[in-house]
Amino acid sequence: MKRPGPVRTAVRDTPPPGMGQWAARSPPGAADFPRPMTTPSRRTLANALRFLAIDAVQAANSGHPGMPMGMADIAEVLWNDYLKHNPANPRWADRDRFVLSNGHGSMLQYGLLHLAGYDLSIDELKRFRQLGSKTPGHPENFVTDGIETTTGPLGQGIANAVGFALAEKLLAQRFNRDGHTVVDHRTWVFLGDGCLMEGISHEACSLAGTWKLGKLVAFWDDNSISIDGQVQGWFTDDTPARFEAYGWQVIRGVDGHDPEEIRTAIDTALKSQDRPVLICCRTTIGFGSPAKAGKESSHGAPLGKDEVAATRAALGWEHGPFEIPADVAAAWDGRARGQAAEARWTEAWNAYAAQHPALAAEFERRLRGDLPADFAALADAYVAKLQADGPVVASRKASQMAIEAFAPHLPELVGGSADLAHSNLTLWTGSKSVAGQDPDANYVYYGVREFAMTAISNGLSLHGGFLPYDATFLVFSDYARNAVRMSALMGAHAIHVYTHDSIGLGEDGPTHQPVEHLASLRYIPDNDVWRPCDAVESAVAWRAAIARRDGPSCLVFSRQNLPHQARDAAQVAAIARGGYVLRDSVGAPQTILIATGSEVGLAVQAAAQLGDGVRVVSMPSTDVFDRQDAAYREAVLPKACRRRIAIEAGTRDFWRKYVGLDGAVIGMDGYGASAPAEQLYPHFGITVDAVVAAANGLD
Q: Is 362 a residue of the active site?
């Protein structure tokens, strides 16, 4: 049941304290503060949300009160009249997804969750930004129930939301049947000027229009303020025209403090079938604050004790800090509505499952994140066959071979490339573009959009039902790196594929030859980086990335062909442990050569020249190796052997953790050069002779 809007009164000759800018920007007849009503007015409900944010920031002496104060009216209408969710079951499959892209205003979302009835107590709001609380400075999906994604760096939230909306579209195409619509939810996004200034928003929103994501609705908090002040000096884009050019429906000029205008805008948005919608909401940052409304001073600091009191007086909020009157709390409580909504869906689901049991079972498996029951055996058989066949191919080709082998058994696998499909080799024979309506659509042509691609992959993963992979050249992982970091921070099950992994790519030169990128990706906590040495290790890397459920994997592949390495069954099994003995010494090792990727073949050749006392360790994933038990790590790299050499066509310093200061590292000290690969390796001293000389020079 819709709540009544506020009672309209004549526009005041003199605006309420602190409302001067808001009143000036509001059209004639805009809603004013309502008179008391038997049931709480919309403004009262919004003020409850405002003061939870004000009080929490004040108590923490840290935070961002301005945005929650400015967007509270929009949030109240959306959450109480439109958002489909169940506070008692935050993981309900067909819930709407709400994304706070301007995540610095996190107290808005925490207040919403508390008021709606999620498991977020008032005590947790009082502990805002404190160690161990459920209310950290920015929303974190792994900390707080009801948070869909971790929105810290501006712009990534809207990109994640595009991934959510794409996931809904693809699941609906795959599973809905005539008379049975079991996938039918929307993605709602709050975003601000900062999100729109970040380049990732351009990349992601362009794709959303191309993909016709009609279930995506974004609210632009158009308050004209960022940290440095009025944005007119640095943000003069015609934002509505920009989004119209992307293919979005744009609803302009909505008074973000008038509930009826907000409702009208949302009702209009709901009619969109094949275009995402941007609702442009004119708001006042710090709404209600006599001294700070409309000013950057309300953005990122507490209002201060005196200004909090003045704001209470200006908005007529006669309640103490963190105090919510019973009638206001009851009006906000969304548990009964949420349970009823989920019950209706469950009834529809049961009818669907009765008529389409196989589809229902597959849908449930995918949402659980379980792999098909036979996948492990199929993957093991494929790896064994590769070891027997011994193909000599570039590892990027081996990657494509693995996709071709695994993807037919993984309908949840959806991936693509940043305009490099024929170089990254991410296409396979079953690839079908997500831009169409094919029920088995599984391939994304991202265009040259590395950052958005990676953040959209995160959204696909977090939504559930998909295992995404994305791809570009390793050197362009710089463009995507912050989204890779967010993959790891959130524990998103996403696979990031990078090819052309070293100076071995050759003639494109130093602008395209990655040097520091492997180390950079390895330094991201909880991010598994794999750099395999041949087709067998490539398949194992893919298998490991698919099986991992608690975080992302970066798979790094070569342009050039790599020799096949001989292994027994125990060595093949040990690849999955991240590092293993590929060629052992006779007796205890006197020297250990550690290598990855294309340099493993070099190490094997050097060992043959150095003699029986040399052990070769292939280390396709240092991250996975470091997680092994101490006994295994000692068995591979015994502490007694200090004569160690690491070999990798990248920066040297990372490898000191394995070889120590008394070992040696064969690698790069600077950038590459433009020349054929076979000339570059000797030019930069990454050769068999260099390894032999280094070994002979060790004490």
A: no
